[in-house]
Amino acid sequence: MDVNRNWPLTNTGEVRRLLAEYGLKPRKSLGQNFLVAAGVLDKILEAAEVEKDEVVIEIGPGVGALTRRLAEKGARVAAVEIDGRLIPLLKEVLGDLGDRVRLINADALKVDYGALLAEMGAGSFKVVANLPYYITSPFVAGFLEAGYRFERMVLMVQKEVADRMTAANGTESYGALSVLVAYHTEADVVWRVSRHCFYPPPAVDSAVVRLMRRPAPAVTVLQPELFFRIVRASFGRRRKMLPNALAGAVPGLDRETWVQIIESAGIDPRVRGETLTPDQFGLIADACVRLGYGAPSVL
Q1: Would the pLDDT of 41 be above 50?
Q2: Quick one: which H or E segment has residue 31?
Q3: Domain tally for the chain?
């Protein structure tokens, strides 16, 4: 097979032919919907602002369309692909790029990115990916919670997840993921993407989101672990008033105690968690600590 830079990896017929040559079919269980829209790739690269020799982590390279474009921009790409069937195909498609592309056959949720980045000599880095839908939330949450010092993440995700990641308080899409993303990053939707831009087309539309890592968290709190425990509990029972939702979130704290904590934070205890801003969650978490309920033993 002739591999060259103009190889049409965003042509649906070519992708079908390529997969057939390797005896492959997309696996729904792995969320394999390959991006076949060159214009959308352009938008992703524009948002990523890839610079020569910087490290980019890509999750789910598929047939290598985005991988090639990133490497051709000068990036050093670590492409993590869980499907071992695709590795021979990717090695052929990307073979002319040499050491600019490093293929890693692994589950993206289990990779030690700290070790990988150290091996690649990366300080700051970027994550650019067409994420398989089924790992989007756990990957983004895990990556943010791990504290990796990425410069930005540019991700293709399910439209519903993009809405959740960028939602403001008081909206239907607002949830624990919204607060986590806002705490660590400034997020925006770069582009809405039709399901028809993929092969095979998924059941829903997608969006490209850009997460710019903040130099410091958006909310300064005394105990971040307690802050996020309160956030998760609030949305776990989001239709209940806040004291009821939080009852049991911290061992030993009942509804009446939460009423006291919430009032001491200057917040009406009759509110629901879905109406609170990240700053207000921070006030409640710090009030909990000030009243003596934030010791490590209750976390």
Answers
A1: yes
A2: none
A3: 2
Domain annotation covers residue 129? yes
| 230 and 151 share one domain | no
> How confident is the model over 222-250, as a mean pLDDT?
94
Q: Is residue 6 part of a domain?
A: no
User: Binding site annotation covers 33?
Assistant: yes
Question: According to the annotation, is 4 in a ligand binding site?
Answer: no
**Does the annotation place 286 within a ligand binding site?**
no
Residue 116 and residue 185 in one domain: yes
Is 142 labelled a binding residue?
Answer: no
| 160 annotated binding-site participant | no
For the stretch 55-68, pLDDT in tens is 999 999 999 999 99
pTM for the structure as a whole: 0.93
At 121-131, the pLDDT tens digits run: 988 899 999 99
Answer yes or no: is 130 a known binding residue.
yes
What is residue 208's three-state secondary structure? strand
